[in-house]
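Minimal example, chain plus L-homoserine.
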Amino acid sequence: MIKVRVPATSANMGAGFDTFGMALKLYNEITVEECSTETQIKLVGGKLDNNYSKNLTYESIVKTFEYCTEKYKGFNIDMSKADIPMSRGLGSSAACIIGGIFAANELMGKKLSVDEMLSIAVSIEGHPDNVAPALIGGMITSIVKDNATIYSKVNIKSNLKYEVMIPDFKVSTYDARKVLPNTYSRNDVIYNISRGAMLISALNNGENEKLRYAFEDKIHQPYRKKFIANIDEIFNKCREFGSYGEFISGSGSTLIAVVDANNFSFNTEIREFLNTLASNWKVIELEIDNVGAHEF
Ligand code: HSE
């Protein structure tokens, strides 16, 4: 029996649409064992998945077995311990995919390299920004070229923590991608290249004062703001309470404020403000996870 823990992830991080992502210390656990009977999947709350062939973790396990031309019959899968909220921009789908691929690889005796597991994951998810940090940990920047994903782990010198603000409403990634334009002006492209490059360099040098500019973006957030009530007011308050930068996590609905590890007042202040709004917001203070998916 294989037990895998996979971290939540936050994609885009401002300017890095479909490119940057980081793993956070919030986890789903999945247990997988092969069986000679029909597959059974236990979901959160103990309910069984009666449409298991459409289950993303199952699909990812099967795809990995097929990639290795290994035979299989069925699997007992337990995914009842899941702390990553669904459809909130925290990589719950990526965690299902990586959990499945990682567990399948362990069951087959670790036949695959990290690069191979990542390329299977990208072929399922369509973009690398969640699956890469979910597998590898840390903050990752990725390029997809032909069928390969080339990635690099960002060396973060700054001592930061992440205030993860999760509302009670969901945003569908499908809808949030549909509202994006097909083309962008040269100015908008330069705007994002300059911010994205600044983000990597400032994090690498520990230049926290430059992070204020480095999380800005003109590729996706201006078009997606409408899905998140009060976003401008929330970001203004985050600045007032001392955050270095704020962004929509993935395609939303979660928002993240990046704060100094020594800022001890932010969490209480932002909670009090969010409690005055119509939607219910939960705030979790998280650190980056530098390990990625692992057996435990
Ligand atoms: N980069 C993706 C997006 C992440 O923003 O649409 C969500 O899956």
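The mean pLDDT is 97. The longest strand covers residues 20-35.
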